[in-house]
Amino acid sequence: MAERKVLNRNVMIDLIGDDRESIRQFEIDFLKQAKTSLIKIAALYNEKNLAAIKEEAHFLKTSAKAVGAEQTADLLEALEHSAVENNKEKSKQKIIQIKESLLLVHKEVKNG
Amino acid sequence: MANRSKSKSKIACRDPEVIMIYENEEDVLGVASIIAEQVEEYRTIPVNSKIGLIINKCKPAVILLALSTIERNIELYNQVIENKCLDYPHHSVLLCNNRESAAAFRCCLKGLFDDYFVYQPLYEKLRLKMIVHNGLQSSQASTKYAGINDEELENIGENLSSLIDQSGEWKQSLLGSISSCKQVINAVEPAEAGSASAASTAILDEINKTHIEPLLADLETNIRLNLDSLIGQLLAQKNGLSTFESRVAMINEMSDTNPDKRASRLKKALAEPPARGKERILVVEDNVLYRDMLVKVLSNENFVVDVADDGLSALKKIKKNCYELILMDLFMPQLDGINTTKQIKAVTGGKSLPVIALTGNKNKDLIKKWAEQGLNGYLLKPSNKTEILKAVNKVLDQAR
Questions:
Q1: Which helix or strand (DSSP H or E) is residue B358 part of?
Q2: Among A38, B29, B43, B228, which one has the highest count of C-beta atoms within 10 angstroms of its own C-beta?
Q3: pTM to 2 decimal places
């Protein structure tokens, strides 16, 4: 299996074509969406609402896959599983990892 | 009644069941003694300013008024009533002289007094006893009066006595039977009335269920179908007009002046379906980022794209607009994709629209199961442009 990238831009090119400006806009929109979503996930974690965390992780995973944020998408899927398993500790670890992966995505988007 | 005292001491009884109010004691001595013989709890009272209070305190069942004139008796009676000293069931008897019997009769006829007794100049003793007896019997307030024993009655001969007793018993028996029957009827009637009412209600319910409700349901269905058909025809006309207009425009664009070539191109053009890319597609997806990506992909291919956040919004748009295809996310808030798909026919008047499901679930068995709910295809999220367009075109081609 090929190494999963922080941000695989070919995914977006395959989807909407080689439209750099639109791709960049979608990447920025993804980061905005991810920030809101991650704050929500943290709040749900504090409420111990793992079922809602699973839903939110699934929601953000679609966007992450669509923009090519492969590592983030994988971590979100892992968070879905740990939430379904009702594993709080594992879920916490995944949430922290997702935050770190999003910082990497942010860095790549910033660097263009 | 054997122990009943007939002494005059009873005339001053504290709680009499019968009282007689008089002005001149001499006038009532005779009748007073007759009543005293008959009733234990009896008292004669000279009229005075406290008579109302006495009556109210004793609450006698029978009140005999023996003032000097009928007018004075009426005035006293009215006064006692006005003073609310006679606010209980009682039997009022007017004692009068022979000259005033017509007025006394009138008083009773008008309901002022219950009975009257002519005691001057002569009186019939047993008649008075009968009046008092009836008064006590009829008054619900009387509890102590035990009636008149046979020993107290005058001797009228054994045969006649026996005949009276037997006839009396028969009559009472007959009246008792009638009364019992009435009670039974009265008790049964409400129950029967209730049962009849329940039966009527049941029959009406049955008629409603078996006849009225099906008729109403048929009527409703017919109206709905007619309306749906009408709406369908209007939509078809609208679509037809749109297609016709686009083809007219296409024909007009043909600049070839050669009639044969023009006819050939026209024939070819009409035989072909309209060019792909003008179809209206509704994208139903709650993830705005992914939705915008789909919109961009489809818009780039010249599809006319509309969007909805959730199932309910989608149904509203489907009802108002005419789409050739729906791309539907299966997991959305408010109303999910499967249930939205099920409702589409309801809002389009029975017209089915092709629906492609958008799902992140890779379980093929599950997707196949969803497809049975009215889906025409599915796209895994996120698919690439080629996969999306392939699925869209396939479904649109099938729908033609």
A1: strand B355-359
A2: B43
A3: 0.48
